[in-house]
Amino acid sequence: TENPDVVLLDASLTSADPLEIARQMRHITTRLAIIMLTPSDDEERLFQSIKVGASAYYTRNITTQELTEAVRKVSIGEYLINDDVLSKPQLASRVLKSFRELAVEEEASPTKDLYSPLSGREVEILDYIARGNSNKEIAKSLKISDQTVKNHITSILKKLSVNDRTAAVVHALRHGWIKMEES
Fold first, then answer.
1. What pTM was computed for the model?
2. Which of 37, 26, 40, 30 is nearest to 66 (CA)?
3. Sign of torsion, CA 30 31 37 42?
4. Beta bridge partner(s), residue 36
5. Coil, strand or helix: which one is 58?
6. Where does residue 107 fall: left (phi above 0), alpha (psi -120 to 50 degrees), or beta otherwise?
7. How far is 151 from 127, CA to CA, in rounded Å?
8. How far apart are the C-alpha atoms of 119 and 165, rounded to whole Å?
9. DSSP-assigned states of every residue in 78-128
10. Could you tell me which residues are beta bridge partners of residue 80?
């Protein structure tokens, strides 16, 4: 039998732990995209969902059109993290902490995708992004122009089929191309 490309999981399941189901599904196939649906916007559930490998997290009031679009996007490898979450400093900090924990878990995993479609410079720039550097800071550190950094980021997003820097970092961490170190 074929494995599915996308799975919708109800985060409020009571008959089984949806996070454990997601974790086990990701062990069966790393190509599986998991969308967690939840009755409310629960920060803790969001972070745990990211940690076990969910590609997207939505409340159940998502429209049919939004859900269809989410399924399409995650099926091609995009990670959908709500910008509202990342615009709040405390929440963004927790997301980064979750990424660090994810990186440690990935390090322990024997199956890493060593092939990267990114150039060495693009991986280097992603590493700076993962550490929270702005485009200006990256440009200064690498002694290149802001525009060159922006060009590299555009190339990274296109190659990884993601919409933003955060999704690119998540993708790179999950594939073992970069590591997050505690600061």
1. 0.51
2. 37
3. positive
4. 9, 57
5. strand
6. alpha
7. 16
8. 16
9. --B--HHHHTSHHHHHHHHHHHHHHHHHHHH-S------SS-HHHHHHHHH
10. 56
Q: Angle, to 10 degrees, between the axis of helix 120-130 and the axis of helix 146-160?
A: 100
Q: Is the CATH code 3.40.50.1260 the one for domain 1-80?
A: no
Of 86, 85, 102, 104, give the one whose Cα is nearest residue 48.
102
Instruction: Decide which of 40 and 63 is more confident.
Output: 63
SS3 139: helix
pLDDT in tens, 103-143: 555 444 444 445 678 888 998 999 898 888 889 999 999 99
Nearest to 11 by CA among 3, 19, 23, 2: 19
Higher pLDDT, residue 175 or 10: 10
Q: Domain segments of the chain: what residues?
A: 1-80
